[in-house]
C-alpha cells in the first residue's frame, strides 16, 4: 500500500529564456515519457494509488494510457479535485490537496518556480523534484524509473529521515510587516517598477540577491553566489550580494548559454533568522520569476529560515531501502561470502 502525488507542470521549460538565452525546450511529450516510467516503477514497488494535478495537456493520463496492456498496472489513478486556473496556482492547489489527502510523497516535474509553488502547499510531505524547467537549482536530473522507486520507498515508510529525506532552506518575503510569499532558492531585487515579463534574464536590472544556496555548478541567478560566496543546500546559512559598481567584476552563467559579467559592490554570508531590509521601490523576483512589487513608501524584508520543504535524495533513499532488504523476494537464500570474509 502507498499513495504518491504527481505534479507535472506543462508550462515548465518554455519561458522567454528560450528567446533571450539558449535554454532547452522540454516538450510535454517528453514529460509524458518520464511520467510513464514513474507510473511503472511506482507500481512495481508497491504503490497502489497516484493522485495527479489536472492540466491542459493531460500529461499523467496520457502517460498511463500509453502503457501497453501487458505492462499496465492495476492501481488507482485519480485527478486532484480542484478548479484549474492554468496558472502557477494550480501547482500550489494540487500540492495542498495531495497533502491533505494522505500522499506520502510528491513527485514534481518542473523547475525552481514550479517547486516554489508546490513547497507553499505540501506541508510536511517530502518532495522528489525532477528537473524539467529552465534554471534548475532545486530539482535534480534523475531518471524517471529511479525517481519512482525512490518515491515509493519513502511513501511506504520503508525509509525515513536523513540522509534519505533532508530539510531545506527558505526565504520568507514580508511586505509592510506581513508575510506574503517565499522563495526556495533566491530572492532578487530588481530596478523595476512593474512585474511585466516574469522571467529574470537581464543582469543589468539586478540590485540585490539573497540566496538559500548557490554553487559553482548552478545556473541562473544562484550561480552569481556560487561563483562568489558558495553555499550548499545543507549549510545553516545563506548569502547576500549587492550588485553595482565596485571592485569585483564577476563572471557567471545567469541563464542557459548566457555568461554575463556582473559588477559586485558588496557581499556577505547571512545566518538563519537574519533579515535583509528592502526600503526602495522595486520588483522582487522569487526563484527566477518576478512576483512582488514594492512601491515608494512601502517596506519589505527578506528572512532566511530552514523551514523549506523536505526533499528526497533518490540515491540515499534507495541505498537505505536496499540495505533493509526491500528489493529481495526470496529471503531464505543465504548470502555467499568470499573466502576472505569467512
TrEMBL record:
Any matching Pfam family: NAD_kinase
InterPro entries from the UniProt entry: AcoX-like, AcoX_kinase, NAD/diacylglycerol_kinase_sf, NADK
GO biological process, alphabetically ordered: NADP+ biosynthetic process
Alphabetical keyword list: Kinase, Transferase
Organism this protein belongs to: Sporomusa termitida
Source taxon at top rank: Bacteria
Protein name: ATP-NAD kinase
Tagged with keyword Kinase: yes
GO molecular function: ATP binding; NAD binding; NAD+ kinase activity
Amino acid at each position: 500500500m502507498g499513495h504518491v502525488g504527481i505534479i507535472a507542470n506543462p508550462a515548465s521549460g518554455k519561458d522567454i529564456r528560450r528567446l533571450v538565452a539558449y535554454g532547452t525546450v522540454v516538450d510535454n511529450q517528453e514529460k509524458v515519457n518520464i511520467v510513464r516510467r514513474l507510473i511503472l516503477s511506482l507500481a512495481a514497488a508497491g504503490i497502489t494509488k497516484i493522485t495527479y494535478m489536472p492540466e491542459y495537456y493531460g500529461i499523467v493520463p496520457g502517460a498511463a494510457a500509453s502503457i501497453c496492456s501487458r505492462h499496465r498496472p492495476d492501481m488507482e489513478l485519480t485527478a486532484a479535485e480542484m478548479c484549474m486556473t492554468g496558472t502557477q496556482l494550480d501547482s500550489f492547489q494540487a500540492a495542498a490537496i495531495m497533502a491533505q489527502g494522505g500522499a506520502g510523497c510528491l513527485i514534481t516535474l518542473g523547475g525552481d518556480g514550479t517547486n516554489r509553488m508546490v513547497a507553499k502547499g505540501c506541508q510536511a510531505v517530502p518532495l522528489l523534484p525532477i528537473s524539467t524547467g529552465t534554471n534548475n537549482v532545486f530539482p535534480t536530473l534523475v531518471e524517471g524509473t529511479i525517481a519512482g522507486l525512490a518515491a515509493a520507498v519513502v511513501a511506504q515508510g520503508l525509509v525515513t529521515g536523513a540522509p534519505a529525506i533532508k530539510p531545506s532552506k527558505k526565504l520568507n518575503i514580508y511586505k509592510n510587516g506581513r508575510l506574503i510569499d517565499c522563495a526556495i532558492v533566491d530572492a532578487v531585487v530588481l530596478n523595476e517598477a512593474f512585474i511585466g515579463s516574469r522571467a529574470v534574464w537581464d543582469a543589468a536590472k539586478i540590485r540585490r540577491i539573497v540566496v538559500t544556496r548557490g554553487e559553482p555548478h548552478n545556473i541562473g541567478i544562484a550561480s552569481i553566489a556560487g561563483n562568489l560566496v558558495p553555499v550548499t543546500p545543507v549549510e545553516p546559512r545563506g548569502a547576500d550580494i549587492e550588485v553595482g559598481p565596485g571592485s569585483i567584476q564577476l563572471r557567471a552563467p545567469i541563464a542557459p548559454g548566457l555568461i554575463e559579467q556582473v559588477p559586485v559592490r558588496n557581499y556577505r554570508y547571512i545566518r538563519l533568522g537574519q533579515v535583509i531590509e528592502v526600503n526602495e521601490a522595486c520588483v522582487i523576483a522569487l526563484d527566477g520569476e518576478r512576483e512582488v512589487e514594492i512601491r515608494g513608501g512601502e517596506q519589505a524584508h527578506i528572512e532566511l529560515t530552514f523551514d523549506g520543504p523536505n526533499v528526497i535524495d533518490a540515491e540515499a533513499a534507495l541505498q537505505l531501502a536496499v540495505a533493509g532488504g526491500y528489493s529481495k523476494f526470496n529471503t531464505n537464500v543465504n548470502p555467499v561470502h568470499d573466502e576472505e570474509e569467512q
